[in-house]
Amino acid sequence: MIDLKGQRYGRLTVVEMTEGRDKRGSVIWRCRCDCGGEICVSENGLVHGNYRSCGCLKKEIQKDIYQQLHFIDGTCLEMLEKRKHRKDNTSGFRGVSRMKNGRYRVYIGFKGKRYYIGYFSDYQDAVTARLQAEQYIHDGFVKDYALWQQRAGKEPEWAKENPFVFEVKKLSGRLEIISSVRKQEYSEKALSESSL
User: Fold this and answer.
1) Residue 81 CB: number of other CB atoms within 10 A?
2) pLDDT higher than 50, residue 138
3) What is the mean pLDDT of residues 21-40?
4) Cβ contacts of 89-96, under 8 Å, gap ≥ 24
5) Over the stretch 139-164, which tens digit does the pLDDT of each residue have?
6) Cα distance between residue 181 and residue 81, in whole Å
7) Is pLDDT at 31 greater than 90 in this prediction?
């Protein structure tokens, strides 16, 4: 057994050995973190770098990541712009799941809600439907927000009076977008046409 007392591992300084052992028989050491917190960790955890703080470092990193993300109207822009396929997807395509009867169910998530698009016998038809839904909803959101942000940068008062809104509703079996940007474009277009 190595005496770790006084040694530093990241933000942790080893204070003393405890009576405890982990499942593998490794000695448990009491450590003090630079932030003042204390934690008991196994020798293996310290030596192999599994523990570098009492948990404060993880909280700081998570806070930094959260501050770097841009949440607009409850939606993370970066997540929409850099979508990746989930590893646990069984059909091979995000938002397309194969059912027991061999058909494919297609859905899309937005703002914490799941919208079902339909059922398809053909896999390629299901993928095409999902891609169209992504283009309509996800890409529509990113595009509308960019337009809103561009105008808001030039006209801050306008931005206060016209907050960004982007909602998805299912009406008569179809997905419909309710967007403050699109509503604004239509009303401005109507105004310019009426002045002709």
Assistant:
1) 11
2) yes
3) 93
4) 91/123, 91/126, 93/126, 93/127, 93/130, 94/130, 95/130, 95/133, 95/134, 96/123, 96/126, 96/127, 96/130
5) 888 899 889 889 988 998 988 888 88
6) 19
7) yes
Backbone angles phi, psi at 55, to 5 degrees: 125, -10
**What is the pTM (predicted TM-score) of this model?**
0.56
Residue 189 is which amino acid?
Answer: K
Q: Where do the structural domains in the chain lie, given as residue ranges?
A: 8-64, 69-194
Partners of 191 in the β-ladder: none
- Per-residue pLDDT tens over the stretch 61-77: 777 655 555 666 666 66
Which residue from 30, 84, 39, 77 is spatially nearest to 58, judged by alpha carbons?
39
Give the amino acid at 63: K
Among 155, 136, 151, 154, residue whose Cα is nearest residue 185: 151
CB 133 within 8 A of CB 110: no
